[in-house]
Amino acid sequence: MSSDSEMAIFGEAAPYLRKSEKERIEAQNKPFDAKTSVFVVHPKESFVKGTITSRESGKVTVKTEGGEIYSMNPPKYDKIEDMAMMTHLH
Hints:
One of its GO terms (cellular component) is myosin complex. By secondary structure, this protein is of the alpha+beta class.
């Protein structure tokens, strides 16, 4: 993995290509529950983050706007270079 100083060659685009070291550490320490964190299909935004609040008799309640549900990757995978390391690919 490249350091923040190596990303300087990308100039203004660098923040969009990779999180800073500080942001990566914060993401790794952020609480994450793979069983309740999901993406929900959204008609305008494509996908929005959601949290499952309940599961009963085949029905799932998610705290956000409705739609199909897809599992979400932990924050530490945001802007990861090797997608093979990701748990979920959609």
